[in-house]
Amino acid sequence: MNSPSKELMGTGSMQTLKDEMAEVTAEMEALDTGEDSKNNPKSKQMSIGRKKFNMDPKKGIEYLIDHGLLKNTPDDIAQFLYKGEGLNKTAIGDYLGERNDFNQSVLDAFVASMTSPT
Predict the structure, then answer these.
(1) Among candidates 87, 109, 106, 84, which has minimal Cα distance to 97?
(2) Residues 87, 49: Cα–Cα separation, whole Å
(3) SS3 state at 10
(4) DSSP at 2
(5) Whose CA is closest to 110, among 16, 48, 69, 118?
(6) Domains (ranges, CATH) in the chain?
(7) Distances (CA, A) of 71 to 10, 22, 46, 106, 108
(8) What's the pLDDT score for residue 17?
(9) Alpha carbon distance 37, 74 (integer Å)
(10) What is the C-alpha to C-alpha distance for residues 77 and 84, in angstroms, rounded to an integer?
(11) pLDDT single digits (tens) 5-51
């Protein structure tokens, strides 16, 4: 019975989706119980930004910039992605793979981060 959904999504895609759901659930639980989040609004905003990024990378970056947690520079965004704390690797790849000049600059800075860590 599961074969039609496997044919539509592919076995790997289904596992990726399950992994992403588990990650988001864990992050939501951490938000509910984390003392840091309750005492530090910036930490809570960062967690929200990460969740938004995992669902829609562009909106997540915009949220973090709008809340002053990230500068709108290729280097700052690249460092955020390189550290990758709580970020879905597929979402990082989607963001870096966008075909526009700014995202290409972020990709260049991201690659530079990999070759010479700060």
Answers:
(1) 106
(2) 10
(3) coil
(4) -
(5) 118
(6) 3-115 (1.10.220.20)
(7) 37, 29, 13, 12, 17
(8) 79
(9) 27
(10) 11
(11) 445 555 567 777 777 776 776 666 655 555 444 568 888 999 999 99
